[in-house]
Amino acid sequence: MKILYIIMITAIAIFGISKISDKNEVSLDAERLNNRLNEVKEMVKTNSKYNTKIAFFIDMKIKSGKKRFFVYDLVDDKILAEGMVAHGSGSETSIPGNLKFSNEPNSKSTSLGKYSIGSSYLGKFGKAYRLHGLEETNSNAFKRNIVLHQYSAVPLEDQLYYISNSQGCPMVSEVFFKQIEKIIDDSKSNIILDIYY
Fold this sequence. Notes:
Layout (H helix, E strand, L loop, with lengths): L1 H14 L14 H16 L4 E10 L9 E5 L4 E6 L1 E2 L26 E11 L2 E8 L13 E4 L20 E2 L1 H13 L3 E7 L1
Parallel strand pairs: 1-9, 7-8
Antiparallel strand pairs: 1-2, 2-3, 4-8, 5-6, 5-9, 6-7
């Protein structure tokens, strides 16, 4: 037990891992999600190129050690799946858990807003999906090479500590990626991904 404690303290010192405080923990806020849902439903209803049945939502108010990526059924109004997702290292602030966001190239930050999930390609992390920003807050996503991809260091289940950061991409576990990959590939129209705070 003592050895495990020493290893944990060493990891915190070396890697800067911060423990998530229970009193500061934020869970899914139904009202905030509902506001985003209404916007997405209106958007897909008026544009035939978007999927009207499924959308993805990422709530950046939820700490990175908790599941905050939600696959949502727009028809039956329910969450179908949820998973862990990393944010950009450039979104970190001096206060753990408080994030900042940017659309600027080389910022390594997460950009808020709605994205259209585009075509897939094989990159350094395997299969990934190009993301097209649909708002002023994420208009540089394609130019910044912001993509939806998997990474082995992203855990599948909730953690006591914050997870690793990306270079600005929404980065998920390999297992969760396989779940959403099937949904994206089976869709005949573009799925909307909404990242909000």
